[in-house]
Amino acid sequence: MVSHADSIAEPRVPLSRARVLEAAIGLADEAGIESLTMRRLAQELGVEAMTLYYYASNKGDILNGMVDIVVAEIELPTPDTDWKAAIRRTAISAHEVLQRHTWAARLMLSSRGISEARLRYMDALLGSLRQGGFSAEMTDHAYHALESHIIGFTLWVAGMNLGSEEDLAALATDFLADLPRDRLPYLAEHVEQHLKQRNPDDEGSFAFGLDLILDGLERMPTSR
């Protein structure tokens, strides 16, 4: 026998802009940004598509709001700390966030990606460089070197889309089986590196490239 309490449906969470954006991010994370339409988003929320326009003026407004939320997840540089350590933490944080939301990297490069959180992120990164003693000119170069690595690496990883580690290992094994090692010995050696167990202290290719940039900036005599 079903009790009266069991027969009462759980109250629906009221619709809000925050809930709309959260659902949109969930869809984009699961199926890619191309899958996000106003109709599908409305279906996900259990409302009519026209209802969404109470909370966003158009799809572009939703995309901008999504980027704002994602960028706000990035740890900003801490003021009055070593510029190199602070920027490294921010870059690693940005990479981790964009790995969770790979669609956001491309949106950040578009005009709609200039959201309030994006502006705060840019200003904080630039500020860390300036407070670290870099000239305005060198800050410009350093900022673009860092951003191209952060955004570019994410886009490269997303573009490769090779699946899980198990999928990558299977792909590498099949590739090696057909590779003429006598003619391409260094390529074979490179592919074999992907099959080896990584050193626990190895932070990966992103951190390796980031450290090259930061170490290079630190050594530049004209940077200060």
Description:
With 224 residues, this protein is an all-alpha fold. The chain has two domains: 1-56, Homeodomain-like (Arc Repressor Mutant, subunit A, Orthogonal Bundle); 75-161 and 199-223, Tetracycline Repressor, domain 2 (Orthogonal Bundle). The protein is 64% helix and 0% strand. It has eleven helices and no strands. It has helices spanning 4-7, 17-31, 38-45, 59-72, 83-100, 103-108, 116-131, 136-160, 165-178, 185-193, 205-219. The chain is flat, with a radius of gyration of 23 Å. The mean pLDDT is 86.
Proper CATH architecture of the largest domain: Orthogonal Bundle
What is the beta-strand fraction?
A: under 5%
The whole-angstrom Rg is 23 Å
**In angstroms, what separates the terminal alpha carbons?**
78 Å
Mean pLDDT: 86
What's a quick, concise take on this entry?
By secondary structure, this protein is an all-alpha fold. It folds into two domains: 1-56, Arc Repressor Mutant, subunit A (Orthogonal Bundle), CATH 1.10.10.60; 75-161 and 199-223, Tetracycline Repressor, domain 2. Helices cover 64% and strands 0% of the residues.
Keywords:
2 domains; Tetracycline Repressor, domain 2; 224 residues; Arc Repressor Mutant, subunit A; mainly alpha; 11 helices
